[in-house]
Structures are given as C-alpha cells and as structure tokens.
User: Which sequence fits this backbone?
C-alpha cells in the first residue's frame, strides 16, 4: 500500500486554497466548472468578453409582486407579494455549465446588448435558430451574435436582410444586430463552433456614483 506523504503550503498558497474551497470546505462551482469543462477553448476563456465562472455561495430571497406592472398608466399600489424568488435558481439552470461574460462591442446593439453589459452563457443548451450565442470562429476569434439557420428562414426574411430573396447562404451564419457591423457568413474553409447560448442580459439601469 502506498504511503501518504504530508503536503505543505505557503501562507499565500493556503489562503488561496481556502478561498477556492469556500466556506463549507468543498470545491466551489467555479473550480468544478474549470475542471470538468476541459473542452472550453482558450480563445473563449481569454477573450475580451471577460469570462467568469458562476459561484453559487449565497441565497437571497426576493419578494415577487402578485400583479404584472404596466408600462403605461399608473396602477393602484396594493403592496401584495407572492412567494420569494431566489435569483440563483431563476437565472442559472446549470451552474457547472454557466458563465458570466461582458459585452465588448456594439454588434448586437439593436438587440439590447450595450458595451459592458453583463450576460449569462449556458454551455449545456442546444443552440437554436435565432438564439444569441457566443461563437468561436476558426478556433481563434470569439464573437457574440445571433445564430441563423438558413433552412429556418423564409424568402421574405432573407430578402429583408440581404435585399435578395435568392441569396445563397451556408447552413448557418451569424447575424449582427447593428447596421454598422457586418454579418459573419462563413466561407467553405471557415469553421464556427458554438460555445454557449446567452440566457440573460443583466443590464444595469441604475448607475451607482
């Protein structure tokens, strides 16, 4: 039987290890995600999207209003709330496959994504036509765009985007939601790998001083 040898850490290394292990002494989802998702591309992790793993180590119950709030005329304040909602459960479906990233361009401006907006990416979801996705181009360039599946598009939709209903398109391509940016239509030699589906855009409306 092999003999177990003691392992010694410097004060700095031990402090870092305690931080990673979390309050309950178990590896946090942050560490699990990095260990179990080894197929994450280096381009994705080191892109300007400032990718961060999810760490669910807190629970805050927020009250939910019973009625929808209209954006039109004012309504009577009934001050009645439904059961509490935990944002961890609401925002994150699969913690080990979910990452936080930040918008780095205005290519999806008309879809509501502004520079520095924070958004969630779930790598366990199957990307579908029309989804906002994080895509890897030729294994080196990361981009945030709308996934378009050509077979799912009507002639009118193609004509509206390109001005030609008979335009020949590849099986899938990436649509920009800003006329100042070009769509990404891959050539035969190019590859597109979907790195994850954007599930939420956590836009900050109140700017702290």
Assistant:
């Amino acid at each position: 039987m092999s003999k177990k040898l003691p392992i010694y850490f410097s004060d700095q290394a031990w402090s870092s290890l305690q931080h990673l292990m979390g309050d309950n002494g178990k590896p946090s989802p942050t560490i699990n995600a990095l260990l179990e998702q080894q197929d994450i591309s280096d381009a994705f992790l080191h892109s300007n999207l400032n990718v961060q793993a999810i760490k669910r180590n807190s629970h805050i119950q927020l009250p939910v209003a019973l009625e929808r709030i209209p954006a039109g005329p004012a309504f009577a304040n009934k001050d009645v709330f439904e059961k509490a909602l935990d944002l961890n459960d609401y925002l994150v479906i699969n913690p080990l496959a979910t990452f936080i990233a930040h918008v780095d361009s205005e290519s999806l401006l008309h879809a509501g994504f502004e520079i520095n907006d924070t958004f969630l990416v779930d790598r366990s979801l199957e990307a579908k036509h029309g989804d906002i996705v994080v895509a890897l181009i030729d294994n080196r360039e990361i981009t945030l765009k709308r996934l378009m599946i050509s077979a799912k598009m009507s002639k009118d939709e193609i004509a509206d985007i390109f001005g030609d209903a008979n335009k020949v398109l590849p099986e899938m391509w990436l649509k920009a939601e800003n006329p100042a940016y070009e769509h990404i239509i891959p050539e035969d030699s190019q590859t597109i790998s979907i790195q994850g589906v954007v599930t939420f855009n956590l836009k900050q409306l109140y700017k702290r001083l």
